[in-house]
User: Fold these one by one.
Assistant:
Number 1:
Amino acid sequence: MNEYEKIIKEKGLPSVGQTVRSKKYGTSWRIMEKKEIWRNIDADSKSGDFRMVPCIYLMFWKVEEGVPPGVGRMMGFEYTLYDNTFELNWGIVKN
């Protein structure tokens, strides 16, 4: 299993097309894009070299009645093995 698959599995990230609900606002969002990218993290304290870690980028589209997919509010977030922000902020909606 590569690092990206490990992030998806351990963090329970949704697939493209799945709907998630904001725990804070109760709004529904659909996952429109998922891609593997690298994220800059703090520089190494000894050498000063910048470091990068693999992460998964998810693009969210706000589901609104009467609005076609991809039109309207969109936002994206990066998720790594070292954070738990998806679990804290989102719940996957079971269809």
Note: The two ends are 28 Å apart (CA to CA).
Number 2:
Amino acid sequence: MAWIGVGRPHRGSTVSAPAARGSRRFWPGERPVGHSLISVDDRDRLIALSIAAGTLAIAANLIGGALGRALFIAFGALAVTCLALCLSPCRRALSWLRSRALRTQEWLLRPLRRRQPQPELPTSAVTGCWQFTTDGLRHPQLARIGMDGFGHPAYSRPVESTPPFVRVKALVACSQLAEEQTWQNLRGRFLGLVTHEWLMTLISELTVIGGDAIWRSRATNVRRWLEADLTGADEKEVPVASAKLLLPEPGPGLFGTDRRCAELSLHVDLLQLEAPTTPVRERRESMPVMQGLPFWRKQVTRALTMSADLDGFLRHDLGVTTSNDPPVQFGFYLHAPGPLTQVVSTGNIRVLPAQYTLNEYVGFAIAHPGGETTEEIAGRIMLDLSERVLHLDGPLEEMSGLVPSGGAADHGLSSRT
């Protein structure tokens, strides 16, 4: 019988293995602790089998997780589909009940509504009552008033050569233009609109109109776009004024326009007459007008009549119907190369210290049956100009242009011509 010792005899000892210290007998089949009876080849095979088994376990785990997620998504989609199929009849039932309830409410309230007097709806757009606003986001057509272009090539001038100018715009909701209206007919009627007394008076208050100046139509690409310039004998010179009318028409509309409204715009350069004997060409290159707040309030009041004039032109001359959806809109824009005090005199009103003064002002008025009168809304526009742009701090009557301030001029060009 073989003896296997776990201990090791001392160096130089002659004691046999069974007699060594720490030695013991092992019976057949018993494995000593701490000793390996597996060969190297068997150990390598066992390691390879362990790695293969671990790899298979990881792969099985990944495949099982992917299948589980796929099954979860599939069952979730199936559950959502089943829920939608179940809710569809319920939604139809609720919609039917709601419609029946509204009909019942209408039937119950019908006798009461018959007893109440119905307000008379206006036959045309409201143009005499206004609400003031400066919210260009709600009225994008008015907000573009400073960026509107006019077709005369003389307006393509350097910025440093551009004098101060005024622009006014009116929008009136109306039906679409009839097909039988020809280009020639529309241009002729538009020339009649721009020669109205209120418009020519407004232009004459702001600039100089030569004796040979007349309105001339400009060519446009579409029938709904009408444009005319007030020019003298030399049509290449900068116009005294320019007007543009955009009309709603079937088909695709112009970019940035409201297809529900007719839009009338007027542009006037602000120039001052130095002497009655000065030639017209030299007058057009003279210094700009500088007027007080009462003067500008008067011009805004006159410009507000543009809306009523446009409403009458649409109904009587073009045969279209006007409405209050959307309501009538009016915009006033004043621009100068430098600070706006170049064209607006503050008189003796106290000016608060400010970092800078803007070179432009824009104010809007929206028609409303319960709004303010034309004179009152013109005063609100002047008050907003005084406080927000000119930084004035004085009596409200002076800042709104109701009464003149000491030292401020209050007369137009027509009084000097």
Note: The longest strand covers residues 165-174.
Number 3:
Amino acid sequence: MNIANQMMEYLNREGTATPESIAVAIPELSQCGGAERALLLLRLNPRFERIDIDTSCQTPESSDEFMVKEEREVYLTSSKWTVRGSGKTDEDVVREAAEQYFATLGRPGAPIVNVVREISRTTGLGVPKVKQILLTQFETMNTNIFNRSKRQGE
């Protein structure tokens, strides 16, 4: 299986990822260029799309990361990419992971700290971001979070 297909499978499984995390997950990329090679392949293949366009406003002075500048758009190795048309955002990934977690837990709720820690571990997203997303999407009471969507109560 070629590297582009492995990248496609990885992004289908994970939803969104950075070139850095893709390079770590695919040994062939780690051996031949790492994140820079992953970034090149992501940019060249029309099946992939960048979803964090806000980072394009960064200037070369504001970041020590590897970057490629083309027509005033900066491509960082920490930029988020996905499979074109999949449309999975971090919010979608966290929601799916939380629903799976609650299903395996067998209870309608759990302490927020435990849920955030587990979702952060499984998705690879930072703890503060996962906590913020969970608190906006699910009902909470005191230190517990429940498998009830806030959207249902509206």
Note: The CA atoms of residues 95 and 134 lie 7 Å apart.
